[in-house]
Protein 1
Amino acid sequence: METGKIESEAEVNPWGEFAEKGSEVPEFDPEKAERMANLVKFTRFLERDLSVKKGMVEVGPRDEDNYNEEARIEYADRFYEGMRGMTTDLKMMMKDYYPSETLETRLQEITEDIIKAGVNYRKLGKVYQRDITDMRPEFVDKVHEEAVGYYLSKDLHKLDERAQTVNEILHLVHSAVMNDEEVLESLPVIEKKVNDYGTGAVLYGDEEAKNEIAAEIYHGLTAEVGDRTDVVALKDRTLMMVRDRGHATTIDVQKWTDGKMYVGYFIPKICNVEMVNALPGVNKVRTARETTTGIFEVENESETAERVLDLISRIPTDADMER
């Protein structure tokens, strides 16, 4: 074969197959490509989020880790390597959505605390609670105050210096992304409908995931039940941001390892205390100045969409505000 000789039409025309069949060459859609890339990034974020949560459990001290010197050395190594893994995941999550040198510095400080504890089981246990799992209620409240979709003045970075543990850092970064309407609106659009006001519900996400629960929720949204809702369909997971209900309530529907469906939600604005406190699985509030979360399980998967739509219909709006 002579050097540089073209051996086939495919080497000249990568669309030769289409040309031979008389088909049109598919046009490249830059917006679609960008949205698909955003979906990959968003899915990767959720996978890393889960990885960090698992990591916090795996590095926890166990009675057998204090059995003898060898066990203590093995635990110290496991703790250190686990922290390295969690740090890598969190840094990648922040790189994609929430860059923060302050949080990266704090992660390095936690790693140094683990190193300083050496193989001292008691000290490592203190580091685990103080630097890994602790979650202060006042910090959670501050995050909930700031992490609200469709609020123009939100700025979660002012909380970066307050985050002291891996758990708090994860909560801050997770809340910043999951309550950002721009993140959701950048994903691929599967279907959308427009109401009389020119807005409406949108079904985003991965069409190949065949998420029937997400589709059923989307098709069940009406003018009476959250017709201004963003629904994101992923594999085994459905995310929502419901505008005008509790200002912009976010809902997360997941299938857990026990086979049950779990519905978690965050309500940033309490329009009616009595109505909110009647919601399933809610953390009850005392005043309208608070925010709240809730979670409940659905044993029969086929009832999930119905239960979620019922939840949305019961979340108070501004029209329900107590005078």
Protein 2
Amino acid sequence: MSEEQPPVPVIIRPSENPASRSGLFRLLVIPFAIYCLWMILTALFEGDHRLFLNADPSGIIVYTVFACIITGMILPVYCIRESFITGAVNMFQIGFWPVRRTFYACFLTTFFGYMAMVLFSPFGTDQSAFGYAFLLLLPTAIASVMVCWVLLGTHVQALVRGGGTVLSIAAGSLITAWLFCLTSFVHSPPVHLQPALVGFLVLGLAAAVFFFAVRDIYAASIFVTFGLTFVMADRIGVSGTQAAMPAVYGSALLVFFILIGIHLYFVRNFKTVKSPV
């Protein structure tokens, strides 16, 4: 039996020149191409079929697998892996932290999200409807966090890192907020377009600030799921809820375990350490 290979150390240090041709291709072109592919598949499997309004069980599963898992989660891992090797990003920047820190971040995010639901729920006092919408949108939220912030946000930061911390965070926040806002066009069509765009832009800005401040992918996913449940409430149908529940529960559990699997993959294969200055 062959010996287990130790994790590849990822040293926090200046990466290759981001302005080089290879740097621009790896930090900008490839992440943006993944974003575009994710948008296209979301439109095909969810928006064009008004999936959240119709709640088709088989459609929910297909959308989750192809748009959320394969394109929104697994493809970004390949790009992030290459950036790990070159030193452009590290484990903490993409939001994977020890269990205790993640637990506290998720607990506080869930607590304040629940309080917001109790006070301002778009479904009124029907908490079961809010819970259904939350689980239905969880795969979309995790894929959004993976593509918009874990992938594009951190890579935009790496691209402009030479301008300082303030510039890199500002650029990452503003660009990813607008890119997230554009996703409103590929989801089930809203009742009123302008309020929907404003809601997505506000949520995108809030989620960008939250992610870059907290740097926890699990807490950011919870934050975005609560936000999507508010801004997409008018795109979620209530008919056929019971028939769709097995697919909704299964899809939510599947993306959650895939996210844990991605976390374990990075933990087993990479190790972030600080190099002496």
Protein 3
Amino acid sequence: MKISNFIKSSAIALCILPLLTGCKEWIDDNLDECAVDAEIDYELRLVTNVSTEINTKLDQTSDSYVKDALQNYLKDIFTDFAHDVDLSFYGAEADKIRLHQENRIMDASQKSFTLHLPVHHYLHNASANLQNNQQVSLTADEYQNTAELYQKDGDSLSTHKTGLFTARADMDVKAGISQTFHVKLYMANAATALVIDTTGSKIKNLRICTTGYANSFRIADSTYKYDKSPVIKCDELPVTAGTQRCFAAVNYPSKDTPGSKTIIETTEPFVSVGSTEGLWAWHCYATLPDGTITRTLLSVKMPLRAGQLMIVKAKLYDDGVVRTDIPTVGVSVILDWTPGGHFDPIL
């Protein structure tokens, strides 16, 4: 009788051992027995000023054609909609190595997935809309604290093609209980638009690029890296009528005002005091009828933050100079500019 009871007790102990140890030693041989179904609810939270910026800056009748073109250009960028999501789960131990990864199609602003996960304490990273972005990819993602959305290298880059959203969460997946985790994703990139009145101008060609932005975003601590200086080629929008031309770009944020912190979500997330020096800039190259080029640098002293659209209106003159009377935008001009000792992006 005593032997029988001992055998039964030993069998029970062996059954419950994976639950007591978190299944760590059992994962390789008993994955199905140690895994549970965890429900994770993903929601995109779009914090932006797009409607306010467009309605405030483009409020004249003459702005209507530019307004339509810009709204159409940005409609698939500033939207709380995720097509694809990368879901990475890292161990909460010191090395934070990835233990599980899935790629899912979301096609919604909010969606719940049931994932079959081994019982474990995870640090979770989520990234949305990478599949069609072309300019940005998930790199160094074997470990949670190095995973980043890295913008491709190059002398001159195209703008981002999607609105990027990311999230991080602490998830302790346990056995024997029903769990639902809620994960909110926030936007990581931003946009600018330069609207130029060309009334009376006789220039042959106008090219715009923009600089001064981050080149990568680290998901674990929501920080941007500025170790490179990417040149972004602005897209000229198809304005169907009028005398205005509009050049827009979607990219990472600029550096923030010195001494301040990036605001992620407040009542007024894009209000800032500005800087005494330029934080980012437009480079304008106007080709005149005689073939000479005028270069105008519009240096913006206000930070561009994640989720933000900034519109600046300017005027193009016969000498190729692009001017604006906005006090937070500095203007410097080089007439008869030629490539050489000056900044020369490859457009």
Protein 4
Amino acid sequence: MPRSTAFDPKTLIGREPERLTLDEHNAIVGQWIALEIYDPLRLPLRRIEAVGASVAECVADLRGRGLDPERFEFVLVRPPYE
């Protein structure tokens, strides 16, 4: 049975954006990611919590997982070394 070569961006949930491989980063260029906003009282880890084609898609994913979208910043992934 042939393996699928399609990349699922959801596999990046929980990963640090700075530690993505070049191929992983290139696979999500043009997509939005949600990162928890820094708060010195909580010291959140800088991890990808949602990936989507739009901010609205990221918000829906966060809400679907019971997370408050107001605690996140949304960043458009740009090509590396731009």
